[in-house]
TrEMBL record, chains A, B:
GO molecular function ontology, one term from the record: kynureninase activity
Key words, A-Z: Hydrolase, Pyridine nucleotide biosynthesis, Pyridoxal phosphate
Alphabetized Gene3D superfamilies for the sequence: Aspartate Aminotransferase, domain 1 (3.90.1150.10), Type I PLP-dependent aspartate aminotransferase-like (Major domain) (3.40.640.10)
Full protein name: Kynureninase
Xref: SUPFAM superfamilies: PLP-dependent transferases (SSF53383)
Catalysis: reaction(s): 3-hydroxy-L-kynurenine + H2O = 3-hydroxyanthranilate + L-alanine + H(+); L-kynurenine + H2O = anthranilate + L-alanine + H(+)
Residue ranges crossing the lipid bilayer per the database entry: none
Superkingdom field: Bacteria
Family the UniProt entry places it in: Belongs to the kynureninase family.
Coiled-coil features, chain-numbered ranges: none
Pfam families documented for this protein: KYNU_C (PF22580)
Amino acid sequence: MSELAAKAKELDASDRLAGLRARFVLDDAVYLDGNSLGALPTAVPGRMEDVVRRQWGSLRIRSWDESGWWTAPERIGDLIAPLVGAAPGQIVVGDSTSVNVFKALVAAVRMAGDGGGNGGDRGDDGSGRDEILVDATTFPTDGYIAASAARMTGCTLRPVAPADVPGALTGRTAAVLLNHVDYRTGRLHDLPGLTAAVHAAGAVAVWDLCHSAGALPVGLDEHGVDLAVGCTYKYLNGGPGSPAYLYVRRELQDRFDSPLPGWNSHAEPFGMRAEYQAAEGAVRGRVGTPDILSMLALEAALEVWDDVPVDAVRAKSLALTDFFLECVAAYVPAGTVESLTPEAHAERGSQVALRCPGAGDVMKRLIDSGVVGDFRPPDVLRFGFTPLYVGFADVERAARVLARTLS
Amino acid sequence: MSELAAKAKELDASDRLAGLRARFVLDDAVYLDGNSLGALPTAVPGRMEDVVRRQWGSLRIRSWDESGWWTAPERIGDLIAPLVGAAPGQIVVGDSTSVNVFKALVAAVRMAGDGGGNGGDRGDDGSGRDEILVDATTFPTDGYIAASAARMTGCTLRPVAPADVPGALTGRTAAVLLNHVDYRTGRLHDLPGLTAAVHAAGAVAVWDLCHSAGALPVGLDEHGVDLAVGCTYKYLNGGPGSPAYLYVRRELQDRFDSPLPGWNSHAEPFGMRAEYQAAEGAVRGRVGTPDILSMLALEAALEVWDDVPVDAVRAKSLALTDFFLECVAAYVPAGTVESLTPEAHAERGSQVALRCPGAGDVMKRLIDSGVVGDFRPPDVLRFGFTPLYVGFADVERAARVLARTLS
């Protein structure tokens, strides 16, 4: 056994989270793509069977009350809340991340312009705040949706590297949309510092947590984040395309003015009133009828977090990525790959991105050899480390297979 | 056996669609709430088990290609197409009805203002079209979302009874949002005539098919409808909160300018480009990652339509509602209930709405007696007749139990 294989064995033996792997359906592959689609939690198949056969098939319409379908968006939001450092009552689940980015960003611009003039949506509402800043290296959909939100609220959109945000903030800035962890490089951005800078400039901070929630502490309440969105199919293991979530800070809920005021966000949804009156609280972020099958699969999936401290998850995540970088340095000839992921723990999420020529083909061969990561154009191998089910022996094997594949 | 019970037996015996009931999981209750939540098709539980255990649990990320997850929205759209009279390539499935109403209505206003002035979204774009008409008795969410679409495009919103639309159309009308069948009364509106009137005024017609698709022929292509939306959990039996759909007429697809241009609608979604470029075709109506569990349950559910002609469904639907009205007239003392549903076949959907005092309590007692309809405030008993699984004996029994409950 090599030195690193022996070290992996030791690390696994002392890993207090190692037992959590049994909460997932896994096989012999090394699955390092949980940052794209989380593995199947063992609780899900049985729950889905009950939801389909009993709740839908037998109770049918009665399940909206009796099986708790109607309140699922806020109930499941409260299950996600502790994972992102939020007190209950501030998160609703539903719609896609893209749709939630739209809700959050339009609402943010409206909040920024609150006191202002003509009551319209335009930046010329008297507040003088008519610019949205967006992470220049964002996952594309955030940028596309931000452009639409800007267009529809009369704002201009300015892409800025996250580190340059403090210098780019002006009295014209209405809202800033940032990613907690960059989807490509795995860089962790300074959520507390950037949020404080946004607030100091009088603007509203919107964070996208897709690549951080479930892998590291977020601290939404603690750091005063205004609005946040995230998906649930990566580190939260909710299943393919499971619904996203929206966080609206409690103090801002009364000012949350949704661009998608569907009937589920009405104060009295079954009153069937022609006039819209927004519900109080996080429920105001709901839109239409929730997709119950996907939503209740997510609820079952979140059971894997029972008694799992997020700090322990973060510690293991850093240990995993540290060890991967160590194994890669040991096994892969120098100069063959270049890491895009920051060395500093404070700047690292739960993935490692390696740049190499022919990355698309390399990833195909890795997958054929039982090491599953993914490829992001033009030249990035992306490896996600889900602390709940990835172990250190997996990491050593992945680096070893990578070295063999590259040689 | 009473005369009507005997007639029911005869009608069931000669019903060529009677065998379709075996395609659903049903029990002894008379389920007349399929216009709210369709019953469970027998094909769904096994499919869901495969989707969860094999596609997600075993193939994991590979299923986006190998299990056809990525193309599900347009593939399932093409399954719905023949049910609403649309050629393939014009429907995508995803998001809620509310979200699709927003996409359709904003896109409609933009189409109406196409040639015009300043390139912005406002009604003052030079086209002079700055008004949206909406069905005054619409299901509330359509009205709420229409108000938001109006606000965000600089239009005014005017509620108008569908019959009054032709007289309300002016050169200022940008778009008209109408329901094919009224959710409360079951009234079927004149889709061909109203669409023609909207077009004659130079405006764009958007139809909500929630209460018609799957119960009667719609003829989207034939009647030149511009845009349409609908849910899939009523007569299409897709399951609780199953994803909605969006129809964009082929000739208008190049001009479909979505307010929710998520990465799934990009011409090259995996190119991860900072610049948005809309895909060609119906795919342009997609937004974020599709909710695969709900979506593939819907795909399995749509198998019940194999070899089922929509015209035969419509004929049975009218026979069912005719017979229900006949039984109610025979069993329920005159003056006890008042039907809100039109007598004329041309004006009737697939439900019967009866107004009566204490309707909420009456419905509770009906449900306790095994006849499941629903209550819509303030005083409406709503009975939906799904021709695929409701028979004439069910109808007779429902009227009989209703009479007993009311006496």
